[in-house]
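Usage example:
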Amino acid sequence: MSANTLATMAPPTPEASIDEASLAEYEAKFRGHYQIWGTLLEENLERLGKGSFSLHWTDTSKAHWGTHARPSSRGLTSMDINRPKAYGTIPENTDQRNFAPRGSIREPYADRMPTIEAYDVLDKKHVWAENVVTLYEEAKSRQWNSTTDVPWTELEPAGEDLEIAACQLATFLTEVEFVAGDFPARWIYRTAPDFFEVKNFLVTQMMDEARHMEVFRKRALAGGGGLLHASPAFEWALKAILESPTHTQGTFLLNVLGEGLVLSLFRAGEYLAKTQVDKEIFRLCMQDEARHVSYGTLELKGFLDAAPDREQTLESMHRFADLGEQIILTVLSDPCVLEPMAVLMGGGIKHIDKGMEGAGLLWATIVEEYLQRCERAGFDRRERLTIPTTMPWVSSS
Amino acid sequence: MTATGTAAETATVPAGPPFPSLEWFAELARMMDEQHDEFGRIGTIDCSMAVCLLDGGPGGTPWCVRLDFEELSVRKLRLIDVDELGGLDFVVETDLATWNEMVADIVANGGRPDLGHTLNGLSLPGTPIRVWSSDPLGRDMFFRYNQTLQRFVNNCAGIAPAAARR
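Running the assembly step on the lines above writes:
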């Protein structure tokens, strides 16, 4: 064994370890809280030492003992367990910044509970949508598996320029799915557990987006073309979504505006598909995306309906949307998205001009459906729209 | 997927219900009930929709059927008037020739339409099939349940032909 090899195998120097500093910080934090935690621990150990029992947990007087959640024909759903008021009443605001479940006996222990600082989304209006519980059940029911539910062995080449376009589109869609998964992740962590239904739904959204990322990556690789060009312009739009200041604003950008657009792209993808494999992929993804759009639309409605000063809140949302709509414009004008769409629509790169006519129809559809969803949420953007309702493209041929 | 017979096989099968008719859609509903495992793998569906054939009724008048899907079945199936369409989640609207062409394609391809004859493919440009709703969230259900709806319609390949006799 050479001296060089030995040097490589040596443990890192203490200065190089960030784990040590993190550990020290963690220790200090919990030593600081040790008074309550330690007291609780001492009480329990003392009881054990005396051979006695607490049995306080057998007191059901403050519980909802005897309240039955009754299954419906499809099993015991989230809607079924929320039917009893004792468990299904969603608070407008919660001060429970810990893990104690809604409906449990938790008040007697409030002064000895830790506070989870990360839980800072404490108002129902910032996360709730009236359809979130049913969408969660639907999402569980309609999961699919990109490994086995797509007939990969049937994938056939459809001409090189079409395959290049399909791979570029798959690259773009892989890129977009990262933010679509990471945005909910950022807010699940911050949402108080009293709104667990929302957390659960967002988990299904994350799973959906992971599957979409996976299936489009697979699509690009399965045809032999592989992943093609990332897009800097598009990356800025994604960053704007991820860094939205509130959950409602970000959900508006991601679920209403972004996923509404992607839903239309998936519909167009199914329409344009040159193979049954592509058709199946887009159809499956389309279903998931439509759930996310539905949640986003009613989440925005719930937020606006609960606003103490609706006019002021609407104005703030309008200001936000003025910027947010640039995401649509960015995506629809990006050559990494628009041009492969036009090639697929036209039937080849020679017919890209013809394809642009189809892309123009898609543009108008995307903007109109966005406006309709905004209106459904009580957020009329028709007079304030900052982007063209038709594609600003003139054929040079 | 319901297996479809060859021409020789279907020739020996009793004629199916005519199209359009309530019985034709009832046959699809019956097949859905028989395929709970297959539909269950796709997922549950809960919506009220209609298929409206603008020239499917007597003398080329509209013909509309309402289907209420619940869980993995069609719970209600009935003919309705055009003025009842607005209250549904969404309406699939087309003409008889388009629907018949779609069905013929599904049958010819053994229960799996070719690339140009899927429900979404025929409806994306707004023609020849138009999917509409008074509520954008209702229209989105067409997309949320698209895989189920496509499979539901694909089962028409298992209905013995009778449309030609209409």
